[in-house]
Amino acid sequence: MGGNVLKKLRSSKGASLTFALLAFLVCAVISAVLLASASAAAGRLSGLAEADQRYYAVTSAAQLFCDELSKDIKSGDDVVYYNIEWSKTETTSKKEIITIKNTEEGYVSNTYDRMSEAEGPSYVFSSSPNPMSSSASFLTKAAMYLAFGGKADTASSYGNDFAGLAFENEADFAAQRTFPKIWKFTIEESSNSKDYAGLKVDVCATMSSDGHILIEFTNHQDAGSAPPFSVNVELVPSGFSGNIEESVNSRTTTVTSSDETFDSVMITTKKTTTRSVNIGWTIGSVTKVYNNGEDTPVTNDDGTPVTNGEGD
To answer: What is the average per-residue pLDDT within 133-154?
Structure first.
């Protein structure tokens, strides 16, 4: 066998040269395929890291929102309740009774109407959960819109300016309700030393006339040109109730002059009207919308749907 190999090596015939060229060509093709595969794999790995960042940005934003809502859920219940309350206090009567002592007639009393000196109405606004918390701020606005329509949007603050609206005619508010009602904002991380553009998430919340809210978390345009990932969170209304209560109280203040020649008794009567609105939402479906357009429900490890901020 060794002799045959030596003969082929010493042969000057063209068959051996053709065989060598063919072997070289096969090796070159294999090498080119391997290099192309490696380059493609490297590109995919680079794109995968970017895709992972964009994917986890939207899922984390949706998860954070559900977690914040879950903090406001009472033990044993799956409903987030929002209570909005306004109180209006106004003076209905203010009278002063002045009694002069040691006159020829003895004691002389006169009653004077002091309503012109009464202070104007005062308003108190309260909301539970506090409207300054991250999730409550949005749902408080939603609750106000359901209760009082577009006038809630025109109020300059949640203080006295808005509280006065609670006692206008209900028809005025109903006439300003337009659906769907849409809120849009962007969640982003700011830092002077790092670029967090890829973590920006656009939020679009749409509320229908029956109180259903669909919140869509989507990659911001700064996150890249690739098709965005989205996560949809549905909030289902769980009841709407309201009531108006009135209470009346009087305060009496007595002042005696320094020389004790007369007494002044001020009687102030005030009426407080309180209007409260209670609205509840529960977290319904949580759906991931992949960048291929397919909807996939978000589930826990055991396959059950994610609700109330649970899941990975």
So the answer is: 69
